[in-house]
């Protein structure tokens, strides 16, 4: 038997010991199929083999090879029929043939018959790699037979000719505002990044991402983009600065272009294979795929978190809660920071790689993965799913009938059961209050419930823009500061159950000068009381940092109330609240000579007291610069 035939039959699971046909015409067609298969021209191979079995209906070897060709073409029902015809001719076939038939029965949802034949295969072979896979398939049969009875809504939509072409497009990555798409396109074997903008309810014509990232010598792919669109992590292979065959690289966007990418280095990368990065919304944890030692299977999901000294920490395996003895790939952490989508052929599913999701509990532990459901998952490989920030839209690449050629990128509605936690975001520009020019400044967003920083980065140095994601269900401190300027304070209250539209704001900060005034939106007291609540501490610490960085600045702390109630009592309450802030600053080593405080009651409103919103704005703590 020729080597190509032995190789193909071994790969396809169709190897047997039957001889060729005595029918010369059938044998000629059979031998013609070989070169076609070598060229991966399965259409021509199929035609030749169909002619062979037409000339000799008892040509078992041709049926088995045809079953393998049908499988390669994903014609699973035809492959199953070819296997069955071959076995009818002669039941004395190898265990691999029984395995091949079982697999095609599974692919065509004949689960009872598939289980019967997988068990028959295991009675002949109980220790090979195929035996391990057959045991896993038996679990899949039980899972899938129930899963197909509860299909999820699934209607994939091609992103259109602005994104997709007759080349292959895959690995979509989307910013939190849903306006920028970055994806991989392969042309003549070379992979590069392309980007498109969502305008007027459609994707405009994609363009190459950046000449600083795309190369003609190397492939760029398997990327993720930070929610604000400023950091691109991607996979680069066989590069001179690589530590292994494939490493993870990062590039930072500056204005309209991207900076030179660099290898993120150890301990994320190693002498092994690292790929398919996924960055957390706070930019502090990088998830990725690696086959390094210490895992549970061939390819596992690992993570590394930035340490206090701004370096990537040790690579940690996500453990058996996520990884299996088989392969996991294409992780994607949603903007909620808690919902992980990934592909696996180890957890019970509908075939090869299925898409799963797992949500992190309050202790930071991922829960048991859940299959996203049928028919999103099928017998074929499904992978590379990303989910929009609002949790409604999924994107991945597939080779569907309505495509433009090769793989295309599609979108579809995420099933309710598989949706992430709700998030919102604040997007804006920071400007100088007097000149209206944009300013590079530091933006911080802090979850006041957990006291965790969810965003800490600088605005774009050219445009002054920023975007920060905030999961629904907490209160957030929002702070903007820049050298030589008064800081800006805001509070976002995102109650669970509310539908919070994204915040679009312009922040105006003024240079430090006498008379400059800042309202501290995150100083909190109970009603009619003046004891500082714990949620106030982060804002007070920011004020302390400001005073320590500007030692020539003296301030007056001012307390204000609305006009509800007795005026004298309001004035006393505002005085005591200002004093509480004053005392806190003194306890934290701010010189008493730099501080004064005063209570104004309702005498200096900044909003109309006729509405609750206005009254809430008037109940405030602020400070004014009295001397520089």
Structure description:
- Residues 1-7 and 10-18 have low confidence and may be disordered.
- This protein folds into 4 domains: 3-147, Tetratricopeptide repeat domain (Serine Threonine Protein Phosphatase 5, Tetratricopeptide repeat); 167-412, 6 Propeller (Neuraminidase); 422-511, Immunoglobulin-like; 513-628, OmpA-like domain (60s Ribosomal Protein L30, Chain: A), CATH 3.30.1330.60.
- The protein is 24% helix and 30% strand.
- It is elongated.
- With 628 residues, it is of the alpha+beta class.
- The protein is built from 11 helices and 33 strands.
- Strands 2, 3, 4, 5 and 6 form a 5-stranded antiparallel β-sheet that branches. Strands 7, 8, 9, 10 and 11 form a 5-stranded antiparallel β-sheet that branches. A 4-stranded antiparallel β-sheet has the order 1-22-21-20, with no helix packed on it.
